[in-house]
Amino acid sequence: MLHLKPTPPMSSFNLLLSALTKNKQYSTVISLCNTLGSSGLLTDFITLNILLNCCCNVNRAGDGFSVVGNMIRRGYFPNKFTYTSLIKGVCKEDRIHEAVGLFKKMIKLGIRPSVITYGILINGLCRTGHVDNALKLHKEMISTKGRSGLICKPNIICYITIIDGLCKAGLMDKAKELFLEMKGSGMSPNVVLYTSLIHGLYSCGDCKGAEDMYKEMVDRGIKPNLVTFNVLIHALVKDGKVEEAEKLLRTMIQRGIEPDNIIYNTLMDGYLLVGKLHEAEKIFLSIKSSGRKYDVTSYNVLINGYCKNKKIEEAMNIYKEMICEGFSPSIFIYSALIKGLFQTRKIEDARRMFDRMRLNGMVLHSKIYLIFLDGLCKNGCLAEAMELLNTIENNSIKLTIEMYNCIIDGLCKSGKLEIASQLFSRISQKGLVPDVVTYSIMIHGLCKKRNLEEAEKLFLEMDKEGCAPNLITYNTLMRGFCQENDSTKVIDLLHKMAKRKLSPDDSTISIVFDLLSKNERYHEVLNLLPKFPPPEPS
Predict the structure, then answer these.
(1) pTM of the predicted structure, to 2 decimals
(2) Contact between residue 87 and residue 117 where contact means Cβ atoms under 8 Å apart
(3) Do residues 162 and 178 touch, judged by C-beta distance below 8 A?
(4) Which residues are within 8 A (CB) of 289 and not within 5 positions of it... i.e. 6 or more apart?
């Protein structure tokens, strides 16, 4: 076209650019517009609007504003298509305040927004959490009147967008209100709208409402799609009805809807949550037999399931398979494997796995360090754990109180109370605050060494520091005093428990029985026991 003599009119080029835009070839259109400019051809207002639309679709709203500046310099006046493209561009980049400003500006200039403009802005507002403002805009659409009736009647897309936003925000009453309004205006809801409402109702715990909405959809002759089945299966799995969810999977396959990996992974996860590892394995195998490929989540779910069930050999086999398939394991997979290796006392393999993460250039966060520290401590590698903690302290890795807790616990259990006390005193120097777990561990260690005076002192200290003892703390200290047959201290702690409205558990009752059995004057002790409030119904 560029080499033809005479050169075709710009309208011919615009037809080509419009066709490419409809096929979402935005980058190609931008490149061709640059070629047109460098060829000396003068682009017109339509060309500039096409270019602006493409810039905004590829998150280049800044270039879009430059195109508008070019329009104005050439004497063109931006119209509703220009403003709609700009609003879409800034909404895609989450610059919602700019989008609202552009919308107000076009109205001020007397440019009437189209239903598409309203829809784009409503979508942007809902997506960025401004559902209240989206509702105001919707109200404006149905209430503002021009000389020929409604200025811009909402279409089905507008209703779907705002109802979906309300569902995601948990505002189900308002969502249902708009749903009835939409039906009252003569519009027929589609599968997308029903799916949003079903998902919203399930998310808010209204299972009955979700089931009724699904029945209404089916009664209207609207067939559920893949997303609908995803929502239904997820809801059933969440409710522990995994067998029903698998029946639904078979139903959708019979209806010719191919399940995606999300559905298979959800079912696997559901079976693992109810302790049915074998069923999860069958779902995993059915992914491949259905002609689909595993994704990283499929591997992640099964590896995690194997590790939790201490089937580390099987977990490692799946790990090797995913490596062969070209997947890079996520930090969650490494975490599950390291934890599983430590639980099955494969300490050297856990070390190698941890080193492999670092060699692969993976950024290790505090949680993975905590898993590794905990594994070392539980396997008696306290010197190595202390060395690693020193490394963490001297580098830019975020320290957490849980790191100190697991090492202090390991030291106390191995009888190294003095080193545990030194580490305990180091906590505040590192800008951390001991929590109830830290204090409980230290108190348990002191009681184990029969140093009850220090244990009680620490118990009183934690209360002064604003760290309220929990039931475990009380039971630990009471057990220590009970072993010394000190009924006065035990009764005093029981009264403090009652004052804090902490209900006794089986361990507390066992301590009291133990105390009464050791005391010849158990009737007197029994009369001194406090009255606890009845436990709240679950």
Answers:
(1) 0.74
(2) yes
(3) yes
(4) none
